[in-house]
């Protein structure tokens, strides 16, 4: 058997099947024995571990009974298992076989790593050791006194291993990747000096000396403030060395390949380039990690163990191993979600591609987007390039494609709100992905063929008592239950029908009433409520009665906050609660049907909201969940539904939803500019967390449209504020759909239209047009772009208003400004003030360059460099005229790629360098990725392969840290390209295979093709011509299917070289001639030069040596005109052709023909070569 404590305590048989250990006390016994695995534990100590200050009447007999239960469980799972629990004075020991406990394996691997002399071997051993961890040590018993010391020791060993691994990777030259990966770890352990030292060295070696020095100062201040200490002598010496820029801090020797790393976060939209370019230009870059992958799963770690559901968990996990669609049904409050999550956690190791929880509570009809977001999939990877006339795949279709061939588990929670849509999506995914298993929770079945229903019943008597007791003791520490009290508890559990939510709500009242008082109050309460609830099913009556009772026990301010919280989707921050829940009661003019029945109109001060929330959390009516920006407050589904009813009864629904809209509109508009600066990571994380609320706010704004009212203005403003965020996160489908909906909801032409709203509508029109172009919608593309710009220019001219007038255009109602709200602007969760938020100032002439740049950016992203180039130049001039440095940097980044593809390497490098410097000054680390491709390409053209590698690795680390999953494959392919130019064909293959696999993982077909191209280039240089031709034919066919014929010059040249190697001279010449014709359409002189060299290679062995020399001369002259000579690693074909022509002509004749070719126009050289000898 195998035992695990590096996470939740668990046991598995030799063949990997989980062992069910019944009852909490028996599992606690197992954990206590595992703390001292292999050593006897005294019986008296085990009694204390299991029962604490309340031992049973016969403690040793009770302990013996638990030991027997543990032995039986082990023996039933694997014959002979009972022999592992050995009776040995002074108590018992668990005879864990060698290597059967994950903590022992972890210790053995870390010991081997310490003894490993070679850094890479050490890193691999440490990586294997750390992969054993599934969560905090003894996660389910870490708070128990018997496990605390062992858990703390193991956590310290884990952290030490992570520090050693970081130091080792630093030796291996992985500083660029470490910079991003260490941020979170250092934030959790800010006073850990060894960890800080690794981070400072990584920053220094990554060229970020200023940040390294600032990091030291931050640590020094922390040590002084919190501990009254100075940094250690070692850290002080490191600081001095950084100030002096000592040679000892220089980079280590580069390694052959980076250690696989797994980091992840979010993105901007780098300028995509056609998936293939001439051989002298490396494949386009984009972003992420060498051989990692996305995080495998997102199941939450519960704050406490599941109680009373052992048999249910075992049955559901059994179904998940045998069936592909399992639905847990049952009424609200019965514990479906908790059971589903626990069952998924029990089987997640069986799903190598992850177990994923997707919450549908509050979701609209686009469920596929909710699933894609949970799986961290972007939808930009399938946009742009696709076969002519083919619509872009829907998000659901893309999900199906990505999940095809995967072994994954999806947990779709709360499907009853969207049961038809959930059923359609589940059916599509299950048909497409044979390895997929779907577990859903719903109050009604999905009604699909093959669906297995499992009804979640209330807890049985023992389970209900255990849950109630656990929650009561948690909320009332020190409570003791004598025999009389235990009988009262049983009575409470019977009265509440064993419904978990009802039990948890009631348990919070034990501190005030005691269990006898609670039982008495419940009996009274149910007698009063029975008459009014007779029409409802019994269990619904019970839950409703308990929620009603909990509500009645609240103060008026507590009720006010609770019901107003219900408008939030999937919780909110304290700042949001203060904004939405504070202020006056319902609006008497709201017109609700229940207006006459309102019973309270309570003012709640902003300063009181936190205290009220804390009290509601104590009563289990509100759940507080830790988030990256502090706690988030959410309601359970049953409580939320109840509170929405109360909100309607008070006539507050409209007013509170307007406050919700006002708050999230302000959040979006204040975050927009910050996404382009140093605070972008924090703002991205905040918008990620608030995505459900932002969607709800947009739905509200769209529903409130009509005439010239404020709702339509809010919808347009929300789309305008969030468009760039959606693009950064790769949610292009959501962006396009939202822009279209906002524009439809508010068509032009309203007589009472507020000033400036036309300009806002025109701006959203530009967003929509650009997004459609990114989507590959080429229908009348030029006309639609022209129309969008004309509409925007006209709206700007017509508006001719000041910023203040523009503000009034969209904010004409106090409902959109909010009547209350915080004034503290210290964090991203909190809008800066209660004054109306000005809309962005693009309604002035300063917005015109933006409109041109964005549409050009969209065109360039789909390969239309020439078409986009005209707009880019105009935008650049406009940005400079208006002093817009971010706009200038963005336009320069785009123009650098355009120049590069036209063969102007010097101009491209200058533009990219200026763009990179501007983005660095502005603190926009994400957009700096746009400059990696042109800068690295220029470095390769100049033969500076080390610099190219460094740029790409830095881009890779940044892209990983921003979660740019469609960027990763291209950057990996870029590293493979540099390896090819260095002549390292093994590394070239490794990187391109990794790129292909990563692209396939996220459904990024263009990235796959780019990687296949690299594999083809490498295969031919390895002499594997059949493999090379197979790869190149695949690329050729795909390029033609998506209308990228101009990118095929390289592919046709490569196929021609392979045909020549096979001795098929006629086919070689045909391919090279076709390649030359294709190169002429590309606009890139380097592509033409390559085609001339290809033609020369076909002429030389066919007896046309002079023609070959002419063509080589013309190609050399063309390359010289661009400042981009052929790299040495790419001269093999040219050198072979040149040698053959020299041998046939002699030195003098060859030199004459070569020089003559250099003086000719390339088309003249082609004609002469075809007729020469």
UniProtKB/TrEMBL annotation:
The keyword DNA-binding applies. Keywords: DNA-binding, Two-component regulatory system. Residues 1-96 form the OmpR/PhoB-type domain. InterPro entries: BTAD, NB-ARC, OmpR/PhoB-type_DNA-bd, P-loop_NTPase, Sig_transdc_resp-reg_C-effctor, TPR-like_helical_dom_sf, WH-like_DNA-bd_sf. Residues 817-844 are annotated as: Disordered. It comes from the Bacteria. One of its GO terms (biological process) is regulation of DNA-templated transcription. Pfam families: BTAD (PF03704), NB-ARC (PF00931), Trans_reg_C (PF00486). Residues 1-96 bind DNA. Residues 817-836 have a biased composition (Low complexity). One of its GO terms (molecular function) is DNA binding. Belongs to the AfsR/DnrI/RedD regulatory family. This is OmpR/PhoB-type domain-containing protein. The lineage of its organism: Bacteria, Bacillati, Actinomycetota, Actinomycetes, Kitasatosporales.
């Amino acid at each position: 058997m195998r035992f695990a404590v590096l996470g939740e305590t668990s046991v598995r048989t030799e063949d990997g099947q989980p062992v069910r250990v019944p009852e909490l006390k028996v599992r606690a016994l197992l954990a206590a024995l595992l703390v001292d695995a292999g050593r006897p534990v005294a019986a008296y100590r085990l009694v204390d571990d299991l029962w604490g200050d309340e031992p049973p009447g016969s403690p040793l007999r009770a302990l013996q009974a638990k030991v027997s239960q543990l032995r039986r469980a082990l023996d039933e799972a694997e014959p002979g298992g009972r022999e592992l629990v050995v009776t040995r004075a002074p108590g018992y020991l668990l005879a864990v076989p060698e290597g059967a406990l994950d903590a022992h394996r972890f210790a053995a691997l870390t010991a081997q790593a310490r003894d490993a002399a070679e850094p890479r071997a050490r890193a691999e051993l440490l990586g294997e050791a750390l992969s054993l961890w599934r969560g905090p040590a003894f996660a389910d018993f870490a708070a128990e006194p018997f496990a605390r010391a062992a858990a703390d020791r193991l956590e310290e060993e884990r952290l030490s291993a992570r520090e050693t691994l970081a130091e080792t990777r630093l030796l291996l030259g992985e500083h660029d990747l470490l910079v991003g990966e260490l941020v979170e770890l250092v934030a959790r352990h800010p006073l850990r000096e060894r960890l800080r030292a690794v981070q400072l060295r990584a920053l220094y070696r990554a060229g970020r000396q200023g940040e390294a020095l600032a990091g030291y100062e931050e640590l020094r201040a922390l040590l002084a403030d919190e501990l009254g200490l100075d940094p250690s002598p070692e850290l002080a010496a490191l600081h001095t060395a950084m100030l002096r820029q000592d040679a000892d801090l220089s980079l280590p020797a580069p390694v052959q390949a980076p250690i696989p790393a797994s980091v992840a976060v979010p993105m901007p939209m780098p300028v995509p380039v056609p998936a293939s370019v001439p051989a002298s230009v490396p494949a386009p870059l984009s972003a992420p990690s060498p051989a990692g992958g996305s995080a495998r799963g997102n199941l939450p770690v519960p704050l406490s163990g599941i109680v009373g559901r052992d048999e249910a968990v075992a049955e559901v996990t059994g179904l998940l191993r045998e069936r592909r669609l399992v639905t847990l049904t049952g009424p609200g409050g019965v514990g479906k979600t908790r059971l589903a999550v626990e069952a998924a956690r029990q089987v997640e190791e069986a799903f190598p591609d992850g177990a994923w929880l997707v919450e549908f509570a509050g979701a609209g009809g686009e469920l596929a987007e909710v699933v894609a977001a949970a799986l961290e999939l972007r939808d930009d990877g399938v946009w742009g390039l696709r076969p002519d006339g083919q619509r872009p795949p829907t998000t659901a279709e893309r999900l199906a494609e990505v999940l095809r061939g995967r072994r994954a588990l999806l947990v779709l929670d709360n499907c009853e709100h969207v049961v038809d849509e959930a059923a359609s999506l589940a059916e599509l995914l299950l048909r497409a992905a044979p390895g997929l298993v779907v577990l859903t929770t719903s109050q009604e079945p999905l009604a699909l063929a093959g669906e297995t229903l499992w009804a979640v019943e209330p807890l049985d008597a023992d389970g209900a008592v255990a849950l109630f007791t656990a929650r009561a003791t948690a909320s009332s520490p020190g409570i003791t239950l004598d025999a009389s009290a235990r009988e009262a508890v049983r009575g409470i559990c019977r009265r509440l029908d064993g419904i978990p939510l009802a039990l948890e709500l009631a348990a919070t009242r034990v501190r005030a009433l005691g269990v006898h008082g609670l039982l008495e109050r419940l009996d009274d309460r149910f007698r009063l409520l029975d008459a009014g609830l007779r029409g409802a099913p019994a269990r619904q009556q019970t839950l409703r009665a308990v929620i009603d009772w909990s509500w009645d026990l609240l103060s008026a301010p507590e009720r006010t906050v609770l019901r107003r919280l219900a408008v939030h989707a999937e919780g909110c921050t304290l700042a949001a609660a203060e904004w939405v829940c504070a202020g006056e009661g319902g609006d008497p003019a709201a017109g609700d049907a229940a207006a006459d029945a309102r019973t309270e109109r309570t003012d709640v001060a902003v300063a009181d909201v936190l205290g009220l929330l804390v009290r509601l959390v104590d009563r289990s009516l509100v759940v507080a969940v830790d988030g990256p920006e502090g706690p988030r407050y959410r309601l359970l589904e049953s409580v939320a539904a109840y509170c929405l009813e109360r909100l309607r009864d008070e006539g507050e629904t409209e007013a509170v939803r307007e406050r919700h809209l006002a708050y999230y509109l302000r959040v979006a508009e204040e975050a927009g500019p910050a996404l382009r600066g140093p605070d972008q990571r924090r703002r991205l994380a905040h918008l990620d967390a608030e995505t459900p609320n932002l969607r709800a706010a947009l739905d509200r704004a769209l529903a409130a449209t009509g005439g010239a009212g404020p709702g339509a203005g809010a919808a347009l403003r929300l789309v305008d504020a969030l468009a760039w965020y959606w693009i950064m996160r790769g949610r292009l489908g959501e962006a396009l759909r939202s822009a279209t909906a906002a524009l439809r909801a508010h068509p032009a032409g309203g007589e009472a239209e507020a000033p400036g709203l036309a300009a806002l509508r025109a701006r959203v029109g530009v967003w929509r047009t650009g997004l459609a172009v990114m989507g590959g919608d080429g229908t009348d593309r030029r006309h639609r772009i022209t129309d969008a710009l004309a509409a925007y220019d006209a709206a700007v001219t017509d508006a001719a208003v000041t910023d203040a007038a523009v503000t009034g255009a969209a904010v004409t109602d106090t409902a959109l400004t909010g009547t209350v709200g915080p004034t503290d602007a210290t964090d991203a969760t909190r809008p800066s003030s209660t004054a109306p938020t000005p809309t962005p100032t693009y309604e002035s002439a300063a917005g015109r360059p933006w409109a041109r740049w964005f549409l050009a950016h969209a065109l360039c992203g789909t390969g239309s460099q020439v078409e986009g180039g005209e707009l880019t130049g105009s935008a650049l001039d406009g940005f400079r005229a208006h002093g817009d440095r971010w706009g200038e940097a963005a336009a320069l980044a785009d123009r650098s790629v355009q120049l590069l593809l036209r063969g102007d390497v010097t101009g491209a490098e200058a533009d990219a360098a200026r763009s990179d410097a501007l983005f660095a000054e502005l603190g926009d680390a994400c957009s700096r990725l746009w400059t990696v491709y042109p800068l690295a390409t220029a470095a390769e053209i100049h033969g500076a392969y080390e610099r190219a590698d460094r740029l790409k690795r830095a881009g890779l680390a940044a892209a990983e840290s921003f979660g740019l999953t469609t960027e990763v494959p291209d950057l990996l392919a870029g590293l493979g390209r540099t390896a090819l130019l260095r002549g390292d064909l093994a590394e070239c293959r490794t990187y391109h295979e990794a790129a292909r696999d990563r692209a396939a993982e996220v459904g990024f077909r263009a990235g796959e093709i780019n990687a296949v191209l690299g594999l083809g280039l490498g295969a031919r240089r390895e002499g594997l011509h059949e493999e090379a031709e197979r790869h190149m034919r695949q690329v050729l066919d795909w390029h033609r299917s998506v209308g990228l014929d101009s990118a095929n010059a390289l592919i046709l040249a490569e196929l021609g070289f392979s045909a020549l190697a096979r001795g098929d001279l006629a086919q070689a010449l045909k391919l090279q001639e076709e390649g030359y014709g294709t190169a002429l359409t590309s606009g890139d002189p380097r592509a033409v030069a390559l085609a001339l060299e290809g033609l020369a290679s076909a002429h030389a062995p066919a007896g046309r040596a002079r023609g070959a020399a002419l063509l080589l001369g013309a190609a050399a002259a063309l390359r010289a005109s661009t400042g981009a000579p052929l790299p040495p690693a790419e001269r093999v074909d040219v050198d072979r052709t040149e040698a053959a022509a020299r041998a046939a002509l002699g030195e003098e004749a060859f030199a004459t023909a070569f020089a003559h070719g250099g003086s000719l126009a390339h088309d003249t050289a082609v004609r002469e070569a075809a007729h020469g000898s």
